[in-house]
Specification:
The chain is α/β, with parallel strands linked by helices and 329 residues long. The protein is built from 9 helices and 15 strands. The protein has 2 domains: 3-118 and 298-326, Quinone Oxidoreductase, Chain A, domain 1 (Alpha-Beta Complex), CATH 3.90.180.10; 123-260, Rossmann fold (3-Layer(aba) Sandwich), CATH 3.40.50.
Length: 329
Amino acid sequence: MAVHAIVAEGPGQLSWLVVPDAAAGPGEVLIKVAAAGVNRADLLQAAGLYPPPQGASATLGLEVSGVIAAVSDDVSDFGVGQQVCALLAGGGYAQYVAVPAAQVMPVPAGVSLVDAAGLPEVACTVWSNLVLNARLTPGELLLVHGGASGIGTHAIQVARALGATVAATAGSPTKLALCAELGAEVVISHCDEDFVERVRSASGGKGADVILDIMGASYLDRNLQALNADGRLVIIGMQGGVNAELSIGTLIGKRLQVIGTALRARPVEGQHGKRAIVDATVASVWPMIAAGAVRPVIGARYPIDDAAEAHRVLASGETFGKILLIVAE
């Protein structure tokens, strides 16, 4: 049987081609892919700007859902035929992918097999950053930049489920309305409103306790201005550049923390490894999903051989939530 995967031959040149068979190695399971999530990291990798970590598959794709086709002899937590989703370091745009069992999760109750592909990356990113890193607690104010994105839509829901108040930025009335529908009490147009002023106004002049930021350099100074004393800024993206001046005076004067994190290159094991993040996410977020407090927000679905169009749409900002690639039987 010929096995296919997307091969990136250049930006916008994504071809569905025959590739070598995948197989489960020690500690791994082999997943027959039903769908793969599309992430901005995939766009960067396709453009040659974000190579996979050493030892990871060169194929695009950081998350999938599907059915387990095979398990290594040393894996006992999962079995052939089980419906799962998984966090990957690469390899998801394919009919089959091998992944460490530690990064595999059951499909949450109430979520379809296909839509589950939109959960691993956002759920693990949001829980590890909002809770494990920033220690968001009930009653605190969270500001989410890019509230209508895959990360943003999930972060709004999780924060509300935790009892936090949420402010979110977005770039169109439709996206702002989606943020409000998901639970954001304060919605801010980044096109024509000052998020520093809006957040301060909403908090009685104090500012946000936690900011989840995808922009990086271009928002750094204003993010520090928007934080409350003892606030935490978590930077998970660089859409606004990589270099900026940091006001040490503001940092010290307000006792702020600036945290930069990435998920893809983390080791599987260790205190901050993927196993620990996956386990914490399943234990804490999956019950929220089963209870209906959190749901995957899917903005578009494309057949896998139309991956180039999916990348174009994500880059353009024309959609909201997650974009999925569907792998046909």
